[in-house]
What we know:
The structure is a single chain. By secondary structure, the chain is mainly α. Helices cover 56% and strands 3% of the residues. The chain has 15 helices and 2 strands. It has helices spanning 17-25, 35-51, 56-77, 83-87, 91-103, 108-127, 154-162, 171-186, 191-195, 225-237, 259-273, 281-294, 299-306, 311-314, 316-332, and strands spanning 208-212, 218-222. It is elongated and about 60 Å long.
Amino acid sequence: xxxxxxxxxxxxxxxxPRQEKIAAGAALDRRLLPSALAQPFQMWLDHLHYERGxxxxxxxAYQRDVRAFLLHLQDYQGGPxxxxxxxxxxxxxxxxxxxxxxxxxxAARSANRALASIRxxxxxxxxxxxxxxxxxxxxxxxxxxxxxxxALPAADLIKALEQLDxxxxxxxxxxxxxxxxxxxxxxxxRLSEVLGLRAQDFQSSTDFLTVLGKGGKQRSMPLLAEVxxxxxxxxxxxxxxxxxxxxxxxxxxxGPLSPRIVQRTMAALRALKGWDSxxxxxxxxxxxxxxxxxxxxxxxxxxxxxxxxxxxxxQRYTQVDAATLLASYKAxxxxx
Length: 336
């Protein structure tokens, strides 16, 4: 992805990964934004990227949400938008947009993210004194169902890693997938963090691994000897040259490994193991946190290992642990 080039004309410059991500996010609606809003919109995106340190995924999501809202608003009022229209933006216009997205199947959590994106754009314009604070900023978030992350059984996970040869025909692909999933579970990494690793990250003999997380923040976590061994096994049989500054995990044709391939591997394991549909690559990270908590680790340590900005995000796992304990009690206690 980093080396990809997209061209829309002879004068089009080489796009950096951030711009490519944004271009992909805009593919659903290729209409141009109103000329009066194009420059403030781009300045806001630059602010999120360079000053706020948004990741490519978060940046693309915010861009997609606000772009969809502005185009909807243009359709809603039946003419080109201006900054004065945003100045006078009312709650009913924003509610109409959310109602339309809900009809399209947008979940409450995604609706709240869209609201956060729109508020961020409007507040940026207010802070830069482009507009005064519109009434629509007073809108509240929708209530979200508190879905708890589900942990997979540790024994099942370990057995699944051993069975990857049944999923992949080539030994080096099975070794690659085994290393990827072992890093997700053994270090609690996000999939984007695993796929962002380089060969140089494993050149030293240290027992710690440093990764680049959300917002460009670095964090270090213990690297288990078993996980390192699986990564080194993959590196030793990978048919592609693993130079220090290139992605560690490669696709079948030598390019950077796509997240979709890892998701397909997990889908194959779900079918093999009979796991539920929520057994995704991210569920391995949930399992890591839940198993640490069950083993007696404190919340602050788990927060640092996961790279959570807020402790409240990590506290969800206490509810998971309590729910597991209650389920065991009901299953075992004769008077439950």
